[in-house]
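Record 1 of the preview.
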Amino acid sequence: MPASITFLPVDCGDMTLITLADSAGTTILIDTNIRGAADDPKDSTRDVARDLRERLKKDENGRPYVDVFLNSHPDADHIRGFQNHFHVGPLSAYSDDKKKDTEKRIVMREIWSSPIVYRRAERAKLPLSDDAKAFKTEAKRRVKVNQDKQFKGVGDGDRIQVMGEDKDGKTDKLGPILRKIDESFSTVNGRDVKGYFTALLLAPLPPSKNEDDEDLLAKNRSSVILNITLGSDANTADACKFLTAGDAEVEVWERLWRKHKGNKELLGYDLLLAPHHCSWHSLSHDSWSELREKAQVSKEARNALSQARSGASIVASSKAIKDDDKDPPCIRAKREYVGIVDAVKGQFHCTGEHPDEKAPAPLEFKISKNGPSAPAKKEAGSKAAGATSAASVAMPHGQK
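->
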């Protein structure tokens, strides 16, 4: 099975499925935004829950599962639909076995969560939705299970990896399940899949004793940022670098640039999910709606987001991008990203415009030894169509 990255069309929100090229076809889902309209069979909104289920395997009990679910941060458009579509609690409490396959909740064999991201969201006084609260409760349950078992013999449905250290030593005793900033890991659901998957954890930036710093990071949409290296087969470990960053805004990118400008390849990518749904606030401190063309780009933030390798693509997970004062998505941000990929002979894509604005469908990149392939521009898509597979045009791979 080839590796792939699929961006589901969820309007302004994120929902990305990574499938590894290992023999197990390991799956990693980053965020979910399943809107009520998408669950309504009478509504024309794309049924992304169906799209997702059709791409997942089932376990020995016939239950659909992802090997990992990562919530980058608790904004509603990154966790919507969680309670309706994902099983929480121990697998022994799974109650959907007698339901139709399309109605069975999805098992999360492992979750990746960041307590400091949730803490900063609360600090910024961002209200947690019921879905976000449910995810937070499930993360705490799994941490306790791991601690009670002394991190040994933890099975499917109870596994967790914690992304980044929390303040005041709250995560100091989580050694085996704690992933620290600027460290790489290749463990997915209890298995080492190095050669097919390695992730460098770039953010959330570590906790600061400076209260002003913490306020600033909280206001800049603290999110888990991973630079993921995917292998296309057993012999090609660096087929695609995928940079995913939730809603991280300008201050975060400025700090990452100052930190890594001497080692820029840590920010390099073949595929970038434009942060915060192609928002101007990831590139500038200025308001687009107020200043329009007078708004200034942060050179440091743009530098951080410009480390595109040859033939790279940037994807905006958003509604169709218009030339207006809305943000996100923002037309000026799109122009900046188009400039970045044009410089490396790459492409810009928007999920709300693929294959067209009237009927957006999943945007899938296949990963070969030559890198990620850009999907064809034409693809049949509708609510009833479910999973689709577009022909693709191979793009040149980035520099090693």
